[in-house]
Amino acid sequence: MKKLLVEIGNTALKAAWAEGMTLGKTYRYQGEKPVDFILEITEKEKPSIMVVSSQYEISKADEAALRKVCGTLLILDSRHTDILEASRLPSYISFDRAANILAARYLFKGKSCTLFDFGTTLTVDFISSSGEYEGGNISLGCRTRFKALNRYSKSLPLIDNPVETLPAGNSQKSSIESGIISGIMFEIEGYVARRPDDVVIFTGGDANYFAKWMKNSIFAICNLVLMGLAIIAEEYEENAVE
């Protein structure tokens, strides 16, 4: 039977039906009622297993409602950390990062990895060749940097991601564009240079945007979190059969 994978992030919900590790129809929702949206998805088809990763704590009432529309419900949030612990991951990392790490372990087994997630935040996580989590860093994401510059200055405009940038700006707008994009690229290049033998993975909303600026070989995988949730569903199903 099909499984439903759901990621409730800082700004949007992403969901996908899956059979094994193959992702099927995907959904994106930006609104204030993510649980209602999930219930709507499951009206016509009941998933055998539903895995929900949420940046926000899912209330007991919402949990009860979700359990009624699936065979088995697996939750990753601040009240449900057992999957993190079983995966040898620290409790302080967010659940989307945990899912990313699980997917990277699966896709690049036996190889050390540097994993970049470009979203509201820019997270960088490091995985050893044996699959051990070696820590990671968090900084502001690309659009968050543009918004912060606009918000905390009195005169600088809000600018979106540019199509191209100059090595050095020759106007206020191009100076902002070059400053932010170049700053992020310097961060990326610094991390990559620190671990030159790693597989480099980009994921998140701006993954493809920054992939085009890279000279090094990288893997851009936009649905890495959902793949990690698929792994969780598969492992649960295998253990249940045993």
What does this structure look like?
By secondary structure, this protein is α/β, with parallel strands linked by helices. The chain has 2 domains: 3-101 and 225-241, ATPase, nucleotide binding domain (Nucleotidyltransferase, domain 5, 2-Layer Sandwich), CATH 3.30.420.40; 110-224, 2-Layer Sandwich (Nucleotidyltransferase, domain 5), CATH 3.30.420. Helix content is 38%, strand content 25%. It is built from 8 helices and 10 strands. It has helices at 34-41, 60-67, 82-86, 95-107, 142-152, 172-194, 207-211, 224-241, and strands at 3-8, 13-19, 22-29, 49-54, 72-76, 113-118, 121-127, 133-140, 199-203, 219-220. The strands form 2 sheets. A 5-stranded mixed β-sheet has the order 3-2-1-4-5, sandwiched between helices. β2 and β3 form a beta hairpin. α4 (95-107) crosses α8 (224-241). The longest helix is centred in the C-terminal third of the chain and has 23 residues, at 172-194. The chain is globular. It starts with a strand and ends with a helix.
